[in-house]
Amino acid sequence: SAPNVKARCLQYPGSEIQRVPVPDDKVDWKIDWHMYSPVSYTAPVVLNKPVWADPDIGSFSPRFNSLDGKVDRRSHEGEYRVENGIPINPHSRTGLTGRGLLGRWGPNHAADPIVTRWKRDSAGLRVFHPVSKMPVLQFVSIKRKDCLEWALPGGMVDPGELVSLTLQREFSEEALNSLDASPEETERIHERITALFGSQGLEVYKGYVDDPRNTDNSWMETVAVNFHDETGNSVSELPLQAGDDAGQVQWIDIDSALSLYASHSHFLEVVAKKRNAHW
Ligand code: RP5
Ligand code: MG
Ligand code: MG
């Protein structure tokens, strides 16, 4: 399939803005396209200078391709081009310049926790898929409030934050609603969650994400890590409750037919294959 499908969605999320259509054969920057004239858009929330966003280029001089103070402006995919002081999307044209909804020029770093367990029947036995004859995995999925798509409960890495902490924090906020919990509940959530996230996770992806918010100058990157509950008695017992930017949360069977946000289905494919599960 053609690269960067979601990052070329015509309607820019949360706006009335239409991207300039980029045909499959013009995605690659290496293909000459003299007439290419993308629309420029940076969302008002970003221009309002929230703490998570960069100022506009010109009023500050970020150090691209390096660790810029606490802000990591390096890409997981190596050096990206900077033209006239503006970073260029390493994967493709998107039909839109500026930052759109993204705060950072260049890479915007996220982390995606993939919490899994085996699907079991009422007797506690693993369930095998009737066609593939492989055991079925389930993962904790959230329904994003912004686009109503099912997704991993991921989120942005705060400046200076360790990815291992982002994974745990975002899972707690979006799938366990830790932000609205009482101090006692917070303590209980923290106890159970540190055991799971303290275990060695399986890193299944690190790099560029095909996110609908991407632009020619700002894009999402992530580290996706799988934390698996083999026996079904650690995470499986956590009381799921949607919070923050999640409207719903539930265990969902992993299957190739799932349609998920951004490139999340690709991460699940890697998990399913590594764990010899149904895909
Ligand atoms: C996706 O956006 C990442 O894979 C991650 O799931 C998510 C992070 O953005 P927010 O959830 O903070 O909006 O590209
Ligand atoms: Mg979040
Ligand atoms: Mg999120």
Tell me what the structure shows.
The chain has 279 residues and is α+β, with helices and mostly antiparallel strands. The chain has a domain at 109-274: Nucleoside Triphosphate Pyrophosphohydrolase, CATH 3.90.79. Helices cover 16% and strands 25% of the residues. The protein has helices at 44-47, 163-175, 183-198, 264-274, and strands spanning 39-42, 67-68, 71-72, 82-83, 86-87, 96-100, 106-118, 137-144, 150-151, 155-156, 202-208, 218-229, 246-253. Strands 7, 8, 9, 10, 11, 12 and 13 form a seven-stranded mixed β-sheet that branches. The longest helix has 16 residues, at 183-198. It starts with 38 loop residues before the first strand and ends in a 5-residue tail after the last helix. 39% of the residues are buried. One magnesium ion is lined by residues 155, 170, 173-174, 244-245.
Number of helices: 4
Ligand names: 5-O-phosphono-beta-D-ribofuranose, magnesium ion
The poorly predicted ranges are none
Largest sheet: 7 strands, mixed
The count of strands amounts to 13
End-to-end Cα distance, whole Å, is 18 Å
Specify Rg, calculated over alpha carbons: 20 Å
Which descriptor suits the 3D outline? Answer: globular
CATH architecture name of the domain at 109-274: Alpha-Beta Complex
CATH topology value of the domain at 109-274: Nucleoside Triphosphate Pyrophosphohydrolase
Strand content: 15-25%
* Secondary-structure element order, N to C: EHEEEEEEEEEHHEEEH
